[in-house]
Design brief:
about 280 residues, globular, 9 helices, TIM Barrel
Length: about 280
């Protein structure tokens, strides 16, 4: 049986956390968002006979952005599988350094995410943000970059920052939000791939098309592999948002079987790269 390390999942504890974004009046304005407005715990990561889940990376899920350590403390108390945490931190704040120091005291924390999305250009040009990225670099923490790679101005700014901070490890989320192959997206992928400490996670297909198909997304993944190389690309689920399209087991069935990767490709994309990049203590 194949082993999987999923480098992009979210767990929800609605009894203790806020999760404002799950409320219907909050963005994203998905008509079916109520389907995932419940608690999701580690035991909900069910793969059945498809594969063995050997570990995962938890990405901040809006538990309590005013006190992000609360989410990390809950995860470290709840989770039993090998895992790492990407915490929330407001990287536009002058208080970010003290927050980062507190987060780094938690053994599971290996990086932070501050979602860029439609504000990417403004945030990436913010002097305080740049200063806080330099702190991330000095602390050896990962920056999870969630932005549309079709935004070429923002990509240029991100590329400039990585040139200035060559040791900062940046992981692009959700393949840079492509709906389909476009010249802007391909140019951005090629540009970012020139930075050796930039990596990319291929996930989030359900956010752009609920009934996504392997035939539509494999060309995007294959292009990313051609530019980044096989060692800097990871396949990830975005659970439980992925459940708006299909079950967790069926998602990994598509990745492990229907995409028809070669054996060594499958191992690297679904296990080895995530273990190495996020330093996951798998047995």
């Amino acid at each position: 049986m194949s082993k999987v390390v999923d480098p992009h999942i979210h767990l929800f504890n609605l009894d203790a956390g806020n999760y404002d974004w799950l409320n219907p009046e909050q963005a994203p304005e998905w008509p079916d968002k109520d389907k995932i407005r419940r608690s999701y715990l580690e035991q909900d990561l069910l793969l059945g006979e498809v594969a063995e889940l050997a570990g995962f990376v938890h990405i901040e899920a809006g538990f309590d952005n005013a006190n992000p350590e609360r989410e990390i403390a809950w995860l470290e108390d709840h989770c039993t599988k090998p895992f790492r945490s990407i915490a929330y931190a407001d990287l536009t704040s002058s208080e970010a350094e003290s927050q980062l120091q507190r987060l780094a005291e938690h053994p599971s924390v290996v990086g932070v995410r501050f979602i860029l999305d439609e504000q990417a250009e403004a945030v990436l040009a913010n002097p305080q943000f740049k200063e806080n990225l330099a702190k991330l670099e000095s602390m050896g923490l990962i920056f999870e970059a969630q932005l549309p790679l079709a935004d070429t101005n923002a990509v240029n700014l991100l590329s400039d920052l990585m040139t200035t901070l060559p040791d900062l490890k940046v992981v692009v989320n959700h393949t840079g939000s492509p709906v389909f192959l476009t010249e802007e997206w391909m140019n951005s992928i090629t540009q970012l791939a020139h930075h050796p400490e930039c990596y990319i996670k291929c996930s989030g297909w359900e956010m752009f098309k609920r009934d996504w198909e392997v035939s539509a997304v494999k060309p995007l993944i294959s292009f990313a592999i051609r530019q980044f190389g096989l060692t800097r690309v990871m396949l990830a689920s975005n659970f439980p948002v992925s459940e708006l399209s299909l079950s967790y087991a069926d998602f990994w069935k598509r990745n492990l079987k229907e995409m028809k990767w070669k054996g060594f490709e499958k191992d690297m994309l679904c296990y080895d790269n995530a273990v190495r990049i996020y330093q996951i203590p798998v047995v």
